[in-house]
Each structure stands twice: as structure tokens, then as C-alpha cells.
Write a structure and sequence with these properties.
There is one protein chain. The chain has 77 residues and is mainly α. The chain is built from 4 helices and 2 strands; from the N terminus they run H-E-H-H-E-H. Helix 2 (27-36) packs across helix 3 (43-53).
């Protein structure tokens, strides 16, 4: 259905940002993605957004945290 198409697109975007393919987005990858998207924020603001969604404080955003960043409801399984 249409939901599966959206889910696939979100996974593709995550994989594109995750340049090194480790299934996590580090701060450098996040900054590069924001730059490519032409997000007009300072590096400090981008870092604050990164820290806000790095909820486990691992220094990386995993897929679940990425979904939260996008405002997508994450089921608690």
C-alpha cells in the first residue's frame, strides 16, 4: 500500500545520509546532509538538533531516532 512506499523512501533517505553504511548517522554525516538540503541554520543550531534527537547520547542517530526526528510515530516493540 501507500504506507509501504513511504517507509521505503524514508529508509532510502536514511541510507543516503548514512555515508559509511553503519546504520547510524554521525554528527558529520548529519551536518553534510543539512548542507546538501540547503538547510539555512548555523552549525551550532544543526548540532543542537542532532543532540536533541540523539536520545541515547551515543553520538549517533540510529534509525528509530531518525524517525522521531522526522515526526514519525515509532511503535514500542
Amino acid at each position: 500500500g501507500p504506507g509501504s512506499q513511504s517507509a521505503r523512501k524514508v529508509k532510502e533517505v536514511f541510507a543516503e545520509i548514512d555515508r559509511n553504511g553503519n546504520s547510524r548517522i554521525d554528527q558529520k554525516e548529519f551536518r553534510e546532509a543539512m548542507s546538501r538540503l540547503r538547510v539555512n541554520l548555523s552549525t551550532t543550531d544543526i548540532d543542537l538538533i542532532f543532540q536533541r534527537y540523539d536520545s541515547d547520547r551515543s553520538g549517533e542517530i540510529d534509525y528509530k531516532e531518525f524517525l522521531q526526528l522526522l515526526g514519525i510515530e515509532v511503535s514500542r516493540r
